[in-house]
Amino acid sequence: MRFFILILICLYANISIGQTIFNIQIPEKKIIISKHIYGHFAEHLGRCIYDGIYVGENSKIPNINGVRIDIIKALKDLKIPNLRWPGGCFADYYHWKDGIGPKKERPSIVNIAWGGESEDNSFGTHDFLNLCEELKTEPFISANIGTGSVKEVMDWIQYTKHEGNSPMADLRRKNDRELPWDVKFWGVGNETWGCGGMMTPEFYSNKYRLYSSFMTNRQNNNKIYRIAAGAYGENYNWTEVLLKNIPKKLIEAISLHYYTTAFGVIGAEKNPPGSAIDFSEKDYFMTIKSAIKIEEIIKKHISIMDKYDKDQKIDLVVDEWGSWYGEEIGTKPRFLFQQNTIRDAMIAGATLNIFNNHANRVKIANLAQAVNVLQALILTKDEKIILTPTYHVFKLYSIHQDAQLLDLKFDSPVYKYKSESIKAINASASRDKDGNYHVSLVNLDNKNSHETLFKLSKHSIKNVSIKIVTSKKLNDHNTFERNDLIKTTSFKDFIFSNSNLSFKIPPHSLMLIKLIK
Ligand code: AHR
User: Fold this and answer.
1) Chain centroid to CA 2
2) Which overall architecture, per CATH, does domain 35-403 show?
3) Separation of 288 CA from ligand 1 center, angstroms?
4) DSSP secondary structure letters along 169-232
């Protein structure tokens, strides 16, 4: 009898059993999804900078000041909002004065953090900041507090930001740059609990107080946004101690690092097992489960922040995230080169949805890393490049940058693997300046498609368009021989009538739905 009544209700409401019903609401409090959630990271690690982004002025590969033109174009197409540099772990070994002045006179250094090879410092502060200008992206510099000094960081700030006369501004002019660059984002160390100095939170809090008091706006005309080196994953005590001990006037944001892996805790000291392309269904499930765990982690860090910062003045900056698998066989150890499959597209889509949905606190995020390292956007080999599945996700999601967050209500079906289950559908939505809505929808389930129904009667939607990123097999990926196996295509298999939008989202696929007013 109950079943019969359910059928009647469904028929009346134009719903089919098993459909996931989505309701969009405009929240009372206006929250903007900061464009900086869509930020990237370029570390002196493996082939990210050298033999990646930077090939040198004399390369036969077309370049602007040594930076590949194809990479510049690809990053511009993403509307890249900010770029973090020079590390990562490398940052706490980096002495910026080694990387300025005539290139021939710059000293070579050993990259102790990554791979132990020498690099000639031909990509330094000017090269990075000029690249950011070319990309129209905001630079984000991670300052060295591990092997550097307070004076060195003060000098770097003055060199990059000071307009008037001063020793560092004059040195900049001597190096052919009259006007300062606008560097707002400054990380105060990196992973100071690990590769950045193995500090305790109490020790780092004090060190942070010292450094940040000298990273002031007083010597410059424009603002500095100081980011305290935050916790890895579930280390909630780190956030607690920092927020308890750092005066509010010294901090604009605290960071969080979290990597996705099928195999438990990882990091700079320990490379995980497992391959980016040869993986089982179980590996897929475990990796996706690990990726979406970031939501619980973000919520718990935010609840600690709410305790110490009731007015929500301090931002959460997830300045390293992404998938981390074992290095590709045949590549150099500690260069962290890995391929990128549709699994990574799922990770990117779900994680960015989670950031969007917590946009009231999460203001900046940086995928690790832009080129040839970990969950890269772009892979290079001589004159060729590949845009990875992750790249295509960022391109679709760029529409959320600086848009208004919408509330999306739905009950996700489950995605099961043996006795374990997680939510199959992950989504976020925003409204652009013209009033159009954009919903990014991910079906993490690798076996089942899911029926969806968007009830839009309250929103006077006139038209719909849907783009999709998907593939036949879970380990499909783009290669230098076939670089368009995974790409964005139009999805036409939907019904839009009587203010209802319905379709089936295929397994392991990601959609960007545009609801046009
Ligand atoms: O992104 C690779 C490394 O991961 C970074 O250098 C470090 O900060 C983290 O452990």
Assistant:
1) 47
2) Alpha-Beta Barrel (3.20)
3) 20
4) HHHHHHTT--SPP---EEEESS-TTTTTT---HHHHHHHHHHHHHHS-STTSSS--EEEEEEEE
pLDDT tens digits, residue range 347-361? 999 999 999 999 999
pTM of the model: 0.95
Q: Which is the closest atom of ligand 1 to the Cα of 259?
A: 4
Question: Residue 267: helix, strand or coil by DSSP?
Answer: strand
- DSSP string for 121-149: --S-HHHHHHHHHHHT-EEEEEE--SSS-
* Model pLDDT, residue 1: 45
Of residues 99, 123, 102, 117, the one with CA closest to residue 50: 123
Please work out whether the CB of residue 89 comes within 6 Å of at least one atom of ligand 1: yes
- List all residues 6 or more positions away from 279 whose beta carbon is below 8 Å from its beta carbon: 262, 287, 343, 474, 475
Ligand 1 pocket mutation, candidates 92, 195, 259, 261, criterion most atoms within 8 A of CB: 195
Do the bridges between strand 378-381 and strand 384-387 make them parallel or antiparallel, or are there none, so unpaired? Answer: antiparallel
Q: Is 451 a catalytic residue?
A: no
Whether 88 lines ligand 1, by a CB cut-off of 6 Å, is yes
Q: From the candidates 43, 295, 320, 327, give the one annotated as an active-site residue.
A: 320
> What is the Cα–Cα distance from 251 to 272, expressed in whole angstroms?
33
pLDDT at 318: 98
pLDDT value at position 270? 63
Q: Is the CB of 187 under 6 A from ligand 1?
A: no
Nearest to 214 by CA among 124, 311, 313, 148: 148
What percent of the chain shows pLDDT beyond 90?
91
Radius of gyration of the chain (CA): 23
320 is catalytic: yes
Range 21-28+407-516 has CATH code 2.60.40.1180: yes
Q: How many CB atoms lie within 10 A of CB 433?
A: 8
**Pocket of ligand 1, candidates 40, 43, 324: which has the most ligand atoms within 8 Å of its Cβ, to mutate?**
43
DSSP structure class, residue 332: P
Q: What percent of the chain has pLDDT over 70?
A: 94
Spatial distance between the Cα atoms of 370 and 127, rounded to a whole number of angstroms: 16
Q: Sketch the domain layout of the chain as residue ranges.
A: 21-28+407-516, 35-403
- Token output for 62: 């077309």
Mean pLDDT of all residues in 469-482: 97
- Which is the catalytic residue, given 43, 119, 138, 191? 191
Element (H, E) at 236: helix 236-245
**Does the pLDDT value for residue 130 go beyond 70?**
yes
In the predicted model, what is the mean pLDDT of residues 441-458? Answer: 96
